[in-house]
Amino acid sequence: MNALLYMASSGGAWQLLSKDLPPFSTVQKYFYRWRDDGLLRTINNELVMAAREREGREASPTAGVIDSQSLKTTESGGIRGFDAGKKLKSRKRHIVADTLGLVIHAADVQDRDGAPAVLKSILKRWPWLRHVFADGGYGGPKLKGALQKVGKFTLEIIKRSDSAKGFEILPRRWVVERTFAWLGRCRRLAKDFERTIASAEAWVFIANIRLLTRRLARP
């Protein structure tokens, strides 16, 4: 695990692992095993609950903030789309802050079309998650109808006030933007280097595990 945390932070290739860590072939073998058997997701979930309880909250969240970001893909990357807004070939990463419910898909799919898949993927693990905050990109009856099929979610769209001038901090939106900023400190996530969606998801969990272990280690 230390080797994977190192790779997430440094962004280096498998063959460039530090010599004081296990051989890259061994690390790679465990990465694929833990990716496929769900261990990385399980570790992430346990750390999320521990961090929440440390803050005096219930272990399982009842509300989350969903957002997405477009990431440039490399030549070796797998499925990708074209983000017309940002003019780049990319994948779109969705997260739900606090639980890191994550789905990767081609970026030419609208934000609101990715939300049901994200929420469905975390419903079994976080059955009490019922209220979802999102920005205007997730608005519209199509998403609400899709969410009703997934579970009993209530959706609250966070909008900038009409009277606001210049930059305005929207507290609920700021939560997930801050999460993206924290994850962005890991160089492995600067671009989407992965050939598969499963690997891209696994590295986000590793980055969040790194964040949570450091936080829980503080006195």
Features:
about 45% helix, 6-stranded mixed β-sheet
Structure description:
The model is unreliable at 79-88 and 103-108 (pLDDT under 50). This protein is of the alpha/beta class and 219 residues long. The protein has helices at residues 2-10, 24-37, 39-54, 111-123, 141-150, 171-183, 197-217; strands at residues 63-72, 81-83, 88-96, 103-106, 131-134, 154-157. The protein has one domain. The radius of gyration is 18 Å and the shape is globular. It starts with a helix and ends with a helix.
Number of domains: 1
What is the terminal separation in angstroms? 23 Å
The sequence of SSEs as H and E is HHHEEEEHEHEHH
DSSP strand content: 15-25%
Task: Give the number of helices.
Answer: 7
Spatial extent as radius of gyration: 18 Å
Low-confidence parts lasting 5 or more residues at pLDDT below 50?
79-88, 103-108
The shape is globular
What is the overall pLDDT average?
79
**Strand runs, count:** 6
The structure class reads alpha/beta
- How many strands, which pairing sense, and closed or not: the largest β-sheet? 6 strands, mixed
Helix percent band: 40-55%
Short structural description:
Helices cover 44% and strands 16% of the residues.
